[in-house]
Amino acid sequence: MSMFSIFSVAGSGMAAQSTRLNTVASNLANADSVASSPEAAYRSREPLFATIRNQQGAGDPNAPGDGVQVLGVTESQAAIPRRYEPGNPLADADGYVYASNVNPVDELVNMISASRSYQNNVEVMNSARQLLQKTLDLGK
């Protein structure tokens, strides 16, 4: 692994955590939404990550490096809660509305975790940059 691949790894981690933060923001924005059926209710979403390992292109500087990749975003299969609100314009024939299955506490924990992971990747990039700068200064 070259010193420059550190930037690729940390950059892919930052991109993944950015996707995670955007997903958390979407979940929190829809936490209090209601719908007229369970199928139409907002379901909590979570990104799915995978590790990228470059086994064959070790000598090729243009080969994709190690890191993390966002495979997609999955929807929660947890039950959709229903509430009896006959006065709500979205209520079904029985007077029920269907709420989102987003748990705001879990989302806040995810937000803090993603934010700290992003910050750690920024620190890795800054440390690598400083090490490269010190290496260049040795020749002076």
UniProtKB/TrEMBL annotation:
Keywords assigned by UniProt, alphabetized: Bacterial flagellum, Cell projection, Cilium, Flagellum
An example Gene Ontology CC term for this record: bacterial-type flagellum basal body, rod
Ranges where the Flagellar basal-body/hook protein C-terminal domain occurs: 94-138
PROSITE patterns: FLAGELLA_BB_ROD
Domain Flagellar basal body rod protein N-terminal: start-end pairs: 9-32
UniProt-listed NCBIfam families: FlgC (TIGR01395)
Protein name: Flagellar basal-body rod protein FlgC
Organism this protein belongs to: Rhodanobacter lindaniclasticus
